[in-house]
Request: fold
Amino acid sequence: MTIKRKVVVLIFAAILVAAGSSTLIGRTISKKAVEEEIGNLLTTIAQSKSLQIHAAISDKVNSVESLSQVLATVISDEAYQDQIQGRLDSPFVTYVLQRFKESNESIRDIVVWNMEGLLMASTRPAESLNMGQGLEEALSMGKEKAYVGTIEAEAAGGGYVLYTSAPIRMNGEPIGVVALLNTVDDIFAITTDRTGLGKTGESYVVNPQGYLITPSRFLSDAAVLSNQLSIGDLKLEALIPGGNHEQIQSSRKAIRAKNYLGDSVFRAYAVLPETGWIVVAEKGSAEAFEPVVEMTNTMLFVLLGLLGAGAIGAFLLSRTITKPIINLHRGVVEIMKGNLNHRIGGGGTDEIGQLSMAFDQMTANLQRTQRELEAYSAGLEKMVEKRTRELSLTNEELNREIEVRKKTEETLRRTNSQLRETMEQLKSSQAQLLQSEKLAAVGQLVSGVAHELNNPLMAISGYVELMEMYVEDPTAREDLQNLKTLSERATSVVRNLLSFARKQDPKREYISVNDAIKVVIKLRAYELNLDNIEIVQELDPELPKTMADFQQLQQVFLNLLVNAEQAMRDAHGRGKLIIRSEKVGDIIRVSFTDDGPGIPRDIVNRIFEPFFTTKPVGKGTGLGLSICYGIVREHQGKIYVNTKEGEGATFIVELPIVTKSVECLSTG
Amino acid sequence: MNGGNHSRRILIVDDEEHIRKVLSRALVTQGYEVAAAAGGEEAIALASKNPFDLALLDLKMPGMSGLEVLQRLKAMLPDLIVIMLTGVADNESLETQSLAQGAAAYLTKPCTLAELRECVENVFRSAGPSPKPRCISGA
Reply:
């Protein structure tokens, strides 16, 4: 809800409450005043009319009493005895009656009866005299004292009459009754005088029997008086609380009631003591309250006017209050958007004006601060940018340096590993060199020894052969044979020795290493089967051929096979030998893996030495592996063993792959 | 045994006396005329004085080497058939060299007398320098 709406609603509510309550209060007060006033008015009217009617009736009673006295006097008067002779029915009485009637305009007719009720005299001819109820009552009631009857429509002459009667006394004794039929114009004039009763008010008289006896304002007289409308019919029950007509007393203030038309009226009444007539004064409450309604309407108009004025006033007021606030709000919104150039302006002296001024001041400060901040921020950004640039440059340099270092490190690592590798190779080469040197030295020694043995051996065997030609003695021949065998054995040893030691180029042919292996296995098949040795061949069918001495390779493989065979057989009477050939890089590798006892660590380095043998004397020359070593070396290859005591041994022969064309080229 | 051999004259050159004796006797029994020399100079002196069909020449000798003797003999007597006696321990290239320089064959010591005789016969039979068989191998 905006402030504007709130102000308008507030003002409206204030006006509504003030004006509404004042209208209500005014209405209540004026209503009360009206009620009081109308009460006073109606009471006054009722009482004054009752006084007037009382006076009129008193006149009529006085009139009948004076007539009765006149009649009594006339009858008893000596002077008139001749004519009357003490009789009421004498013409003179009638004459007196006529004279009395003529002297009083308010008397329409006069009737005189004797005590027995016989008509004595009348101003009207007896035949036109209608003895109605009123006349009967006047006769009967008038026998003892003066009586006032009721008002009746007179059938004969038309119009309405009021009966009054009084006894005619002679010497204190009633001798007859005189009754007057009084005109009621004076009474009717009183009741129909509606001064102060407005358009709807009226006054009328009700007799103790409850019958309306004066003309009404809204009913025809005939209906009222001839039809004898009762109080009940006239809905006048309010007049007679408790239904006791006799006890009705004059009201002190007006009451609210319904009239015979059913309209709401204010009513006051006064009771005539002699006759018990009730004089009623009424006024329609609608009419009575007309000023109140008018006043209320006026007040409502005023209220409407006030509301209108209030609306305008509220609008204007709210404008004056809310417009600066709205401006202020707009200013705040603008600043929130970031428009610090916005100014609210309007230097009022009120709180909002001051607030606006303060706000503008604040905005200006803010703007200044922001500018300073921006300037600072720009400087900062530049600085950061510069630093970032520097940093990124440094970073790049660092990265480059790291790259370089990484590369260097990598190179170092590679170099290192190469170095290590080289060192390994060196070590291995050194070991091999040592071994080779050792073996070469042994070879030279052996070679020398063998050479020295050649000639004696040949000479010995030669002499033996020569001797065989001429020696006949069987024992001598047997000795010669033994000599021959022994010298052959010695020759064989020397040959083997020399075949290890001698430096001869192998016979080079383009051969298959696998074929050499297969031939050897075939050669030993019988023995292998005999010794329960299982051969597993894992020969690479793609193994390339190479230039080598087929016979020599056979010799090497045969040696390795026989060694393994013997080792396994001696160890556990059976065995499994895996013979594998494969191409590794540019070499051919052949391995013999047995599940024999392996080679003890302390001798593994000596097995390729000539004459080194673990076999019993006479069982082996100790030259087999030396010869293998020599052959493989002649092929520019390597032979070595991997073994662990108790877990078998693997002899490995590595030969370079030499292609035919290369060999041709090298030999020319 | 072989009557064809009587006209053949063989010169044995070896520094080892017993080799000279055994070879001589073995060849003599075959009907060859045999002379022996203990060294290269002696052999050349003999060869220059006497005609020989064949020379058994030890490759390894003190003083003049077998190859040198071979060269000198072949230079002097181009038709002389030479069988080189080589030790098993000797370098094979020496054998190859000797064949290249005109040796008809070579024998590897130690060898049996039977092998010797067979080689000699073969050499005479083929009577030409080529092909130059290797008469015997140690195997």
Observations:
- Confidence is low (pLDDT under 50) at residues 128-134 of chain B.
- The domain at 3-125 of chain B is CATH 3.40.50.2300 (Rossmann fold).
- The first strand of chain B starts at residue 9 and ends at 13.
